[in-house]
Amino acid sequence: MKNLGPWWIRLPLLFFIIFGLTEFFIDSGDKPAFLDQPIVALFLGFIILLLVGIELILASIENVMFQTLSEEAKERYLASKEQGFEWAWGKRMYKKLLGSKPIEAEGEIILDHNYDGIRELDNKLPPWWVYMFYATIIFGVVYLVRFHIFNDYDQDTEYLTEMTLAEAEIEEYKKNAKDLVDVNTVELLTDASDIAAGKAVFETNCVACHMADGGGGIGPNLTDQNWILGGDIKSVFNTISEGGRDGKGMIAWKQSLKPVEMAQVASYVLNFQGTTPANPKAPEGDIIVNPHMDVEGAPAVDSAMIEVEVDTLEFIKTIDEEGTVIE
Ligand code: HEC
Question: Which of 110, 147, 210, 260 is most deeply packed, by most CB within 10 A?
C-alpha cells in the first residue's frame, strides 16, 4: 500500500480541509458556520467519526495483508515503512532532545550504590529541559532590562492604551451601526453633522406642515413645550416613525426615511425648543419639559429629586438623635 503519511497527520489534515470548505462555502456572517448553524457542527462531528472509521478499517486491512506475507516479505515491508525521510529526521531529533541512554548502554551510567535492590542511573538533564531553562534566563534578562532599567511601559499605560484602542473601536462601530437605531435605542444626537443632516431631512419633508422655523401650520408648533404625542427623543422618534393619530395628517415616515435619518430629524426637531418662530401656532397638547435640556438648552437638572433626598436625610437624623420621632 502506498504510504500517505502517518494517520495523525492524515486525519487532522483531511478534517481541516473539510472544515475550511464549510467555512468558505456556507455564508454565516461574522460567526463561524459551525456556531451559526448547528447542523454544520453535527456534520463536522459526523465527518470525524467517518474519518476515524476509515482509518480503523485501513489499519485492519493492512494488518490482515501483513499477516499473509512470508517472514522475509514482512521484514522487507517493515524496513520500507521505516524509511520515510521525515521519520528518520524526527526520530533523531526526538532522541537528541530526550538525551537518554539506550538500555544497552545503561551500564555506563549506573551508580555504585544499591538501595535494597533499587539502583540509580546517573542520567544527564534532558536537553529539551535545559534549553527551555536557558530560554527563560534569556527572557528574564530581556524583561529586566526592558521594564526595570529602561521602564518601557507599565501596567497603567498598557491599560490606557488598550482602553483608548477599544474606545476608538466602539466609535468606529457606532459610526457604521447608526442605521441600527430604533425607538428603544435612539438617543439625542448632538454632532453638528447629525443636526445638519436632520435639518436637510426636515426641509425636504416636513416644512410644508411644520414650517421651516417649526412654528407650525397643518402640523403643530414644534418650538413650544406642549406636545400631543410626547416630547422626549424616543416619543418624537416614534411619532416620526409611526405617524400621528389617525386622520390628523402626520404620516408614518418609516417607509421613506432610514432609521438614522429619523433619529437625525428627531434631534433637529428638539433643537427648536425655546426658539421663537415668526408665526407660532397656538400650543396643543400637554406641557412636557423636554428631559434632554431645559429651555436655555442646558442639560436638565432634576431639582425636585434632590430636595426629596435631602428631606429624607434630615428626617432620619431627627429620629436618630432623639430616639423618637419628633415631627
Ligand atoms: C402633511 C403634513 C405633515 C407633514 C409633511 C409632517 N407632519 Fe408632523 N405632524 C403633522 C400633524 C397634523 C401632526 C399632529 C398629529 C396628531 O395630532 O396626532 C404632526 C405631528 C408631529 C409631531 C408630534 C408633535 C407633538 O406635539 O407631539 C412631530 C415631532 C412631527 N410631526 C414631526 C414631523 C417631521 C420630523 C416631519 C418630516 C419628516 C413631519 N412631521 C412631517 C403634519 C405633518
Answer: 210
**Rg of the Cα atoms in the chain:** 39
Rounded to whole angstroms, how far apart are CA atoms 249 and 206? Answer: 12
As a whole number of angstroms, the distance between CA 234 and CA 310 comes to 31
Q: What tens digit of pLDDT does each residue of 61-112 get?
A: 989 998 998 989 888 888 877 666 567 788 888 888 888 888 888 888 888 8
User: What is the distance between the alpha carbons of residues 69 and 75, in angstroms, rounded to a whole number?
Assistant: 9
- CATH code of the domain occupying 192-287: 1.10.760.10
Q: Which residue out of 207, 209, 235, 260 has the highest number of ligand 1 atoms within 8 Å of its CB and is therefore the one to mutate?
A: 209
pTM: 0.49
Instruction: Please state, in angstroms and rounded to a whole number, the distance separating the CA atoms of residues 232 and 240.
Output: 12
Q: What are phi and psi of 114, to 5 degrees?
A: -145, 105
C-beta of residue 271 within 8 angstroms of C-beta of residue 245: no
Task: Calculate mean pLDDT across residues 54-64.
Answer: 92
Q: Read off the amino acid at residue 18.
A: I
**Residue 233 CB less than 6 A away from ligand 1:** no
C-alpha cell at 310: 435631602
- Look at ligand 1, atom 43, and give the residue with the nearest C-alpha: 250
Q: If you average pLDDT over residues 189-197, what whole number do you get?
A: 92
- How far apart, in whole angstroms, are the C-alpha atoms of residue 124 and residue 128? 11
In the chain, where are the structural domains located?
A: 7-83, 192-287
How many CB atoms are closer than 10 A to CB 309? 8
Distance CA 276, CA 38 (A): 60
- Helical pair 192-205 and 259-270, crossing angle rounded to 10 deg: 100
Q: Three cell numbers at 247? A: 386622520
CA of 287 to the centre of ligand 1 (A): 17
- Say if residues 207 and 200 touch (Cβ distance below 8 Å): no
3-state secondary structure of 256: coil
pLDDT for res 300: 46
